[in-house]
Amino acid sequence: MEPVTLTTERLLLRPLEPRDTEAVYTACQDPDIQRWTSVPSPYTPEHAQTFVERISPDGWRTDTQYPFGVFTKADGRLVGTVGLVRLALLHTEERQAELGYWTAREQRGHGYTVEAARATCQWAFTALGVQRMEWYAEVGNAGSRAVALKTGFRMEGTLRARIVHQGVRRDAWIGALLPSDWSLETATPYLPHPRP
Prior knowledge:
The protein is of the alpha+beta class. Helix content is 29%, strand content 30%.
């Protein structure tokens, strides 16, 4: 897929570029990002360069992930990243994707990540035909869960041993967002199980 750019009231979501490498490196020095996400730990300048210059563009080219750098419109500062990951089911009848994100420490608490997540999900539903958006986070990652809930995800439970992080299997929360949650139509009808 050709990379795209999205805009919101306060943000610009665009593919990462080499000029962003230092900001990504600096943000990923945060112990919370290394603790709760899949970024390497310790995080080196080479990791940032590989992510920006190889992993991100390769994801777009191979349709395996669609990552965006999230930047403030006002001053162009890096807020974090958001994107669709694990896209193996996107081009199948399931039409599923997974939303992932991290936020630089100094940019937290402003609602930026929720704004970026909503824009990414809207794009996925309307432009890509996603019919189920999933979100996972290790149990205990309250910040990620709060963003998911504010974005509109419904928590569906806890999956045992879902995430491997730093060589250890860990339980994960799972949430999902459907186009119908936002009053959007889908190509495949949804027949929910009747609740007792």
